[in-house]
Amino acid sequence: MKHTALYLFLIILLSSVSSLANDCQDCRRTAIMGQCENKALPEDFWENQHRYDECLREELDLTKSENYLADLQNPDKKWEQAQKNCEHLLVDYGRKFDFSDGEAMASSLETGIASVLTCNRFHIGYQKAAYFFEATYDCARNPVYNDYNEERYPSSLNIRMYYDGEKKELVKEWTVNSPTYSWNSLTNRMFEQQGDVLGYNPALMRQDVPITNILDAFEKVPITCTIKPDKDPVSYNSEMTIEISGFKDKEGRQSREFNRVLVVVESGSITNGARPESMNMDSAAVFQVGNGRIKVDYKAPDTSIHEYEQIKVYHCHNILKKSALPLAQTNISPKVIAQKKVMFKLPGVTAILSVEMKSSRNEDNVISDRNEVHKHWNEEQAATILFQLEKEPRLSKDVDPTTGKLVVKRYRYGIKHLSLINMTHTGSGTTDTDISGVHVLTDSSLTAGQATVSLEQPGSMLKMDVDQTTGKISNVFFPNVVLQYQTTLQIQGTKKTKEYTYPINRSSDTEVNWHIAQDFGDDGSGICYQVLESDGLTGFVGGSEKIESGRYKKAQFSSSWSISIHPDE
């Protein structure tokens, strides 16, 4: 490529940033150099070039390993004659154009574009890019003569910048023209020319620095939107649709469809959209702006100590198409562009009780030279039960001896409905025993099926004690419940004696009645009944934890509960 050695640019990192008020330093964009085309290059150019070179060698009587050093300023007769004899193999307009192929053009132009447009938010040369450039060089086939009767071949260079979205979309186009076929003349007009006080304009692409102004105008990154839930207030344990629309950029223009936003709720969950890998929680989801109306499927919690749901919409940094960057891998901005509170509304009074037990048995015991025992077992049980209570409690009253007045000492709520939110019961372990020459190796696992839940004593009620000093709820007593389900224990391994080896592969099913109480794991201190956190009106939280240890066994117990009181529907 004849201009490559002459056309070398230093990469200059410009410090320019976007003039938009919503300048997002993390909204970094990358581009790659795409297809480049030399339209002036005939399809048979290199074939003819080879024939022409071979003709010169034959005329000069050279072997393949020999070179002929010709003085182009003062050519000798032999060289002139060789050129004349081979002239018929030249292209018809005498190579008065740049003969770079597409690959050579791309390398040269990538350097030029990077030297002008690179800044802290835009770089060129990355494979996973939101934008790409294409270019076309062309040159006149027939000469044009100037006032001095000099032969000229006018040429042009066109560079186009595209967004690599679901479809190819033109963002910006630059075209420069030169009265000559000189590649350097074109690149000087496109990239190098600085401009001066004499009225010379800077190079065409330099007039669009910083490039972030063009990008922001094209992308129209949302800085505001509107949140419209179809229910306000929303009942606990119900579903609704939240419409998010009106996405606008700083100039009030509608944001482009490829922009992404993150929707986060504080207490409930979002059941559609893409869960971001960086957050991994069902209360957050990423969406594309699309047609400007995002439908968010929302599920309210069973209960919450808060009186409202907080909905927030965050700006996201990425605009890549989903096939290049899935929504779940989106980079999240800390910038909130919209938020809204939706009040919770209870269909009565609800309470949630959660219990958990984790136990492990690790027995490593060498009794004698002929008796060695190694047993390891881990087991976990957990359950969360939802109580829906009668709206109006029954009151237990007593006379205050200091005032002689009748005061409320306890509220008792009837159980209207009982349901199981979740339940797990799993276990796994290993056995390695060698007793009197019998060696047993096994692996075991325990799984549980679906469970049903019922009150241990029908008619039991949830009770709340009132602190006579403060008048607030001080203690809460849940009724005991029973979970009924079936477990399957699977044991596999081998049993070896001196003469035989027996395979072990057996399973057994067991019907389980798991009795769950609020003091699951309590040591008698009563802390699991005390209100540990409260808003003073409608929300109460409590619980306890305990760890037990023995010679071989260790168990960890915990219980937690929450209550929300909204008797008015």
Would you give an account of this structure?
The chain has 569 residues and is mainly β. The chain has five helices and 29 strands. Strands 17, 18, 19, 20, 21, 22, 23, 24, 25, 26, 27, 28 and 29 form a 13-stranded antiparallel β-sheet that branches. A five-stranded mixed β-sheet has the order 2-1-3-6-7. The chain has a five-stranded mixed β-sheet with strand order 9-16-15-11-13, with no helix packed on it. A hairpin with a 4-residue loop joins strand 27 and strand 28 (539-549). Helix 1 (45-60) crosses helix 2. The longest helix is centred in the first third of the chain and has 16 residues, at 45-60. The N and C termini lie far apart (81 Å).
What is the distance, rounded to the nearest whole angstrom, between the alpha carbons of the first and last residues?
A: 81 Å
Low-confidence stretches: 1-22
What's the total helix number? 5
How many E-type strands? Answer: 29
- Percentage beta strand: over 45%
Average pLDDT, all residues: 86
Instruction: Outline the biggest β-sheet.
Output: 13 strands, antiparallel
Quickly give the structural class.
mainly beta
Share of helical residues: 10-25%
Q: What general outline do the C-alpha atoms trace?
A: elongated
The radius of gyration is: 40 Å
